[in-house]
């Protein structure tokens, strides 16, 4: 009975055949593509050892998209840092500490070096529409501010720019308000035309300006030339950075402008 359960001894030929079959099976296994990679990367006991991961597939993915993802992450981070840096400084128009100005300009330069639109005037649709100023090196200090009455009486509110590429027109709209006197709240509008001067630069020509309502014009009439001198965009503008939500420019007066895209349906 026991004898029947025992297998006959393996001959040399049997051993050789078994070894060959085992080796062939191992070779075939090496060529079988891994399946369900997402299921073998980790387990409830933690990560698998490195040798067990589909390294080739991971490397290919990194090669194809890694640098692009890193650049997008860097852009997003720098934009966040810039928005944080300009918080609470009223666009910088009324001055700021030199350390803060250096911090902002450093971030501006970093973004300019990552500009995703290197030839903006060849893609003018990227600059079309309404933009809101978030930072500028235009300054209204000392006697300028006093003469304009901006210290105690009139405050400077939002600054918008609307660009119509079909007409090669740009309109700057500077809003003012008077504390406690809603009738004196209004805006200065400056209309200008522009033409392409290079792949990054446009030349700007002043056309006309208006202040509404008339009561606000009466406040600024005496120093209207000074007001226009501050906000008149005539000259040239270099577009140094533009994407779907932010635009940076530098003009011939060494000013820097940082603007964010704005839904002009809310701009009334």
From TrEMBL:
One of its GO terms (cellular component) is chloroplast stroma. Keywords: Plastid, Transit peptide. Residues 77-259 form the Plastid lipid-associated protein/fibrillin conserved domain. It is found in: Plastid. It comes from the Eukaryota. The keyword Mitochondrion does not apply. PANTHER family: PLASTID-LIPID-ASSOCIATED PROTEIN 4, CHLOROPLASTIC-RELATED (PTHR31906). This is Plastid lipid-associated protein/fibrillin conserved domain-containing protein. The lineage of its organism: Eukaryota, Viridiplantae, Streptophyta, Embryophyta, Tracheophyta.
């Amino acid at each position: 009975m026991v004898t029947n359960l025992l297998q006959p001894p393996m001959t040399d030929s049997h051993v050789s055949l078994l070894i060959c079959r085992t080796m062939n099976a191992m070779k075939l296994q090496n060529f079988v593509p891994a399946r369900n990679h997402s299921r073998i990367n980790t387990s409830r006991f933690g990560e698998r050892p490195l040798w067990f991961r589909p390294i080739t597939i991971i490397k290919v993915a990194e090669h194809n998209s890694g640098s692009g993802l890193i650049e997008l992450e860097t852009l997003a981070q720098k934009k966040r840092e810039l928005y944080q840096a300009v918080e609470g400084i009223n666009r910088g128009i009324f001055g700021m500490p030199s350390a803060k100005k250096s911090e902002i300009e450093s971030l501006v330069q970093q973004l300019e070096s990552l500009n995703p639109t290197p030839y903006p005037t060849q893609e003018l649709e990227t600059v079309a529409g309404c933009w809101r100023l978030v930072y500028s090196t235009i300054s209204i200090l000392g006697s300028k501010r006093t003469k304009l009455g901006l210290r105690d009486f009139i405050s400077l509110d939002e600054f918008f720019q609307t660009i119509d590429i079909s007409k090669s027109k740009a309109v700057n709209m500077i809003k003012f308000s008077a504390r406690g006197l809603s009738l004196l709240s209004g805006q200065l509008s400056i209309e200008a035309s522009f033409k392409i001067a290079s792949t990054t630069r446009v030349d700007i020509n002043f056309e006309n300006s208006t202040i509404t309502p008339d009561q606000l014009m009466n406040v600024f009439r005496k120093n209207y030339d000074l007001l226009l001198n501050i906000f008149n965009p005539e000259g040239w503008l270099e577009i140094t950075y533009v994407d779907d939500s932010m635009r940076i420019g530098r003009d011939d007066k060494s000013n820097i402008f940082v603007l964010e895209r704005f839904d002009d349906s809310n701009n009334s």
